[in-house]
Amino acid sequence: MTSEIPPRRRIAIGMRGVALLAAALVGLALCVAGIWQLEAARAGVTITSLQAGTTPMTVYRRDGAAAAPVVVIAHGFAGSRQFMEAYALTLAHAGYLAVSFDFEGHGRNPVAMSGDVTRVDGTTRKLMSEIGRVTDAALSLPGVDGRVALLGHSMASDIIVRQALADPRIAATVAISMFSEAATASAPRNLLIITGEWETSLRQDALRNLRLADSVANEGDTVGDPAGSGGRRAVVAPGVEHVSVLYSTTGLREARDWLDRVFGRSSSGPVAATGGAIALLLAGIVLLAWPLAELLPKREAPPPTIPLRSLATVTLVPAVATPIVLRFVETRFLPVLVADYLAVHLFVYGALSLLLLRLRGVRFGRLAWLAALALAAYGIAIFGGALDRYVASFMPIAARVPIIAAIAIGAVPYMLADSIANQGGHAALWRTAWIRAAFLASLGGAVALDFKRLFFLLIIIPVIVLFFIVFGLIGGSVGRRTCSPLAEGIGLGLILAWSLGVSFPMFLPG
């Protein structure tokens, strides 16, 4: 004899089915719309991969374009060629030959960054030499008329300013989110500074550099004559910060127009502001995770709620203890900037949390291996594949595989503890925010205790926040379906290790 499903339960099941179908259709539509727009931005441009010695380059050339100046495009810290594609496509559509590349230690460059990162004659000088080699290779390409400009973001802004001062071939410099002490009143020649509206300190620095040339100039003013003896300009891209400035229509148009003035050209073609399309694609992938997770085997009983006192113990004790303990531990064992410390921090924090959870009587539940592997595959292959093509390098070269494996030793225990404390995605939002804020505070404490060694962690913290938001939503869908925090934790731990392993610059001191 079978029991009849109550009417309210049938209605709830039906509404859930409709919601899942709607999520699947909307997610698919977002993915299609995003891919269509991103591929449309590439239409009419031939994209070729080349090498300048060991440095990987990508050349963007408009089909049928006449001989034109070449623009060498450099990414920022922990970036890659893909980060700069909006500028490369915009300039290629305008008829320029655009050449982007991966700095040593970044993206798919197999050579580790080296030198002293705190000294101009250390790492900075080595990266300047690399830009010089890429410039030589770019000028030798067919279709280049012998003229060259540099464009760079964040860390690269200082590198390109210094290189433009050292290399008389450089006719113009476009510095995005610039921080550099190297510029003078008249050099580098034809300097355009683009800063996001929300980059307050960098806007002040841009204005300072503009006023070296004219003490009363303001944002938006052009000092001198870029078509003649040389000019300088500082502009603000509205409504953007340090990363989204790379997709600002204002910034893209200003860069193109500035180079046109310097080189006496009149360009046409679309501005490839691809940020919105990227957001559509990634949002679609995140949304699709919910209906796809429903294909996994289901367990009815969710993990029990953890008492507040226990939750406070398993978060606050590791948050305080981990940075204090590691202050006295040597953690330099990977050829990557601060990733070795982060791996150890994750391991200690996760191990302490798991121990305290067990001592507090929290049951970990069963492990659904299929769900764990499906989550890892979705995050790495599907979401990561989209990132790799349109946003940033996500598929590792061979040298990064052992780095990912080493980070996983710390990332998996940490994400296991996080998922168990979050009840496999069933915890209230404020609990999730508390759990993850405690970990971020722990990283902040580590930086405060050893700022000289760990200040690069400050750059990575926003990446971890983004990971929590994006992959937390994907992992939560799996955790709520399977009621297996262990599956969610292992899957997210592998994704986190992969994400950090491909993002941190490879580095060898000396």
Automatic annotation (TrEMBL):
Residue ranges of every copy of the Serine aminopeptidase S33 domain listed in the record: 69-184
PANTHER family in UniProt: DIENELACTONE HYDROLASE DOMAIN-CONTAINING PROTEIN-RELATED (PTHR22946), POLYKETIDE TRANSFERASE AF380 (PTHR22946:SF9)
Protein name per its UniProtKB record: Alpha/beta hydrolase
Transmembrane regions listed in the UniProt entry: 271-290, 311-329, 341-360, 367-387, 393-416, 428-448, 454-474, 486-508
GO molecular function: hydrolase activity
Domain of life: Bacteria
Keyword terms, alphabetized: Hydrolase, Membrane, Transmembrane, Transmembrane helix
InterPro entries: AB_hydrolase_fold (IPR029058), FrsA_esterase (IPR050261), Hydrolase_4 (IPR022742)
